[in-house]
Amino acid sequence: MSIEAPDLSLAALTPLLFVFGAACTGVLVEAFGPRESRHPVQVTVALVGTLGGLVSTLLLAGTAEVTAGGALAVDGAAVFLQATIAGLAALSVLMFAERNLDPARSAFVVSAAVPAGSPRDRELLTVQRVQTEVYPLTLFAVGGMMLFVAANDLLVMFIALEVLSLPLYLISGLARRRRLLSQEAAVKYFLLGAFASAFFLYGLALVYGATGSVRLADVRSAVGGGDGEVLLVLGLALLVVGLLFKASVAPFHTWTPDVYQGAPTPVTAFMAACTKVAAFGAILRLLYVAFGPEEWTWRPLVYGVAIVSMVVGAVLGLTQTDLKRMLAYSSVAHAGFLLTGVLGYPGTGDPAGSGLPATMFYLLAYGLTTLGAFAVLTLVRSGDGEATHLSQWAGLAQRSPLTAAVMSLFLLALAGIPLTSGFTGKFAVFRAAIENGAWPLALVALLASAVAAFFYLRVIVLMYFSEPAADGPTVGVPGLPTTIVLAVTAAATLVLGVVPGSVLGLADQAAIFVG
């Protein structure tokens, strides 16, 4: 019996090789590098990995092939989403590297193994040493995300889900301050993430039982055949539940507010931007490629959770007094808006005629805006920590007009105000839904957007029309990494709102699935 090696296209795998290669290099640096020089080396390795992945994906533009024995599909949609993930990850690494804002010089705990609240933990709070294991962990998560959006096989998709999830569980518990809250967030994320993985794996087993294959193309061929239809629909439902958890879609969002609040702010920004792109990339591929011809099997499910997510995110966001929790419910509402674009599916099998380009553009715009908002959050201080309570932002415009203006830009973009990227993204997904018969959902989305706009505008009113407290807020002077992040995200938010045509055109050209 001879075993043939699968065909591998090294060119198509270059983005993954860059990121995973950098992650493995980071592990070696941790093992053999001197402690004093690890931080600059790890930052450099992480930036080389993410930027190398970004450049290599750009060079793959126009590629449409299946490689690795049919397990990976390197097509227009995968390349666009991989480029988005790599670019957002590079900006996230810069946020991780910031050391000028905190007296202890880093957002991450020096030693995660020290019990929270112990004398040793209090001693390490002021130590100038920095955590460096976070960089290879982040790179493994990025590699898993890039693999996730290109998976053409349910088993590979599950492996990618675990590769991206496990590092996130760890780095969520590495906050230097509020250690117990951070560790609680990590445990909640791990436990609920394990349930979501179990749902996905059981759904995979049911789909395999119904079709005899885990390849998306084989599943598509079996859909509508009549045999095993009940198993297939149940398997689809469980697969979608596992993916909706990662995408922070209500009612599978319960981990989101606690993890966003407890995790280090740079990690929260990374999860809010990159994980959302990866999860929706997998959702689009699963629904359009594997189950697209029989959209009745998934359309009612997605219709329902989209409405629930928009309503829950908009209404509960109104009740929040912590800014990170408010942005968490904002993420839940935006997940519902994104599902509106997913439902813009014409049923013709042509992704370019669907909401796919609009959804990909929305993911890019939302990721950049969210990273910028969290970058501003790291600057604003109250006492010896970040100002996360809304009352601590009162009068910020009097203390730092530029910081307040930049934050206002990001909040207006999240609200979908014209001349920002958020308006362009929402307009694109709502139009795709209306053109393909989902106009009632677009109407609900418009109403939810109006409700959600209130809690964004509330922060702006606090910054400009309230008197600052005697002890704050204060604004730290950003270092070069945070300055780059703010400049890139603010410029992108304006450009994608004023002249979005070229990026929308790229998304339309990239709306290709092979498999």
Automatic annotation (TrEMBL):
Kindly list the residue ranges recorded as spanning the membrane: 12-33, 45-64, 76-97, 134-151, 157-175, 187-210, 230-255, 267-288, 300-319, 326-347, 359-380, 401-419, 439-465, 477-499
Q: Can you say where in the cell this protein is located?
A: Cell membrane; Endomembrane system; Membrane
The top EC class, named as a word, is translocase
**What is the superkingdom listed in this entry's lineage?**
Bacteria
Cellular component terms per the entry's GO annotation: endomembrane system; plasma membrane
Keyword annotations for this protein, in alphabetical order, are: Cell membrane, Membrane, NAD, Quinone, Translocase, Transmembrane, Transmembrane helix, Transport
**GO biological process: any one?**
ATP synthesis coupled electron transport
Q: Which InterPro entries match?
A: NADH-Q_OxRdtase_suN/2, ND/Mrp_TM
Q: How does it assemble?
A: NDH-1 is composed of 14 different subunits. Subunits NuoA, H, J, K, L, M, N constitute the membrane sector of the complex.
Could you tell me what this protein is called?
NADH-quinone oxidoreductase subunit N
- The record lists the organism as Geodermatophilus tzadiensis
Q: What gene, per UniProt, encodes this protein?
A: nuoN
